[in-house]
Amino acid sequence: MARHPLLAQAFALSNAGRNAEAVLIVSRLAGEGEPEALYTFGEMKWRGGMVPQDPAQGRDLFRRASEAGHPKAAHYYTNLLANGVAGPRDWMEALCRLRKEAGADRARKQALALIERMDLDDSGDPRAIPPAEALSEAPRVRTIARLFTATECDYLKAVAEPLYMPSIVYDAQRRAVRDTIRTSDGSTIHWAIEDPAVHVLNRRLAAATGTSAEQGEALQILRYRPGQQYRNHLDFVASSENQRDQTALVYLNHDYQGGETCFVKTGLKVKGRKGDALIFRNAGPDRRPDPLSEHAGLPVTRGTKFLASRWIREKRWAP
Questions:
Q1: pLDDT at position 44, please?
Q2: pLDDT-derived band of residue 171, with 50, 70 and 90 as boundaries?
């Protein structure tokens, strides 16, 4: 799709730091129905920064760009219909759209094929979940063998591959620096790129934890190479009004050495097989952090560890 010359000018202005002028051009072109401008303005509204963040408006702009023929916007809108983020959820319509998209896009075809292998109800929820095994009551830790299939694990690794970035935090001067606690690389599958196959895997995690999919933060895929680790930490978020109540991890491979998940206060160590889930609570009934939930991802000594991680809040987290 050829880029409108005024849109190219807007990108040049933004690169030069003249963001207000760039936004004016993009918003005007979007108002005229120009497909790439609709998509670009949708991205701006979705992410915030150059304009006030408004996920609902971003989603609607993706819808309009999709109707104007923009393929990436069409995928985003299908994804958001599937997960119900920033607007109504329509699983059956999302599946219908995905089937059409699969005819022209290999990645969408793979997502559809994965879904068609699953035993789902008409809402995209799993009809059954494997039984959980208790590993500990204090802290409360459960494991579920083969919650994800090997094919599903490989699919998540493939989706994550182009998106890896070093784990970062901000120092006292608000500079982005490498996180010294978590030295892995992370790939966040945020809601707009959470395709319907990834979404139903998140719904399976929700069923396994007795929560709704909307309570989960965006799924993260973590990659630990030799020497990388996640040092002792709590997943509890101090002073949050919507607490990280549970953590769900799925081991996406097991052909590595080291890298055990260790609960440092009790000495419990877990190294799951490919597809196994580890679920634990971060807070007690009083909403206070459970100190026994302090844990670490021990250093990988050989090979590469891949882990899917989803933090689950007390109540709805998705916009």
A1: 97
A2: very low
Whether the pLDDT of residue 1 is over 80: the answer is: no
d(CA 236, CA 24): 41
DSSP state of 274: T
C-alpha distances (whole Å) from 155 to each of 51, 109, 260 are 34, 12, 23
CATH superfamily of 5-116: Tetratricopeptide repeat domain (1.25.40.10)
Q: What is the pLDDT of residues 219-248, one digit of tens each?
A: 999 999 999 999 999 999 887 899 999 999
In the block, residue with structure tokens 């970062």: 168
Asked if the 133-313 domain carries CATH number 2.60.120.620, the reply is yes
The answer, as to whether pTM is greater than 0.90, is yes
Contact between 261 and 269 under an 8 Å Cβ cutoff? The reply is yes
User: Cβ neighbours of residue 178 under 8 Å, at least 6 residues apart?
Assistant: 166, 167, 168
Q: What is the pLDDT of residues 241-278, one digit of tens each?
A: 999 999 999 999 999 999 999 999 999 999 999 999 99
Cα–Cα distance between 168 and 176 in angstroms, integer? 6
Contacts of 10 (CB under 8 A, 6+ apart): 21, 22, 23, 25, 26, 29, 40
CA angle 137, 239, 58 (to 5 degrees): 105
Question: Cβ distance 191 to 219 under 8 Å?
Answer: no
- Domain range summary for the chain, segments of one domain joined by +: 5-116, 133-313
Q: From CA 150, how far away is CA 161, in angstroms rounded? A: 17
Parallel, antiparallel, or unpaired: how do β-strands 230-233 and 295-297 relate? antiparallel
Q: Which two tokens stand for residue 168?
A: 């970062």
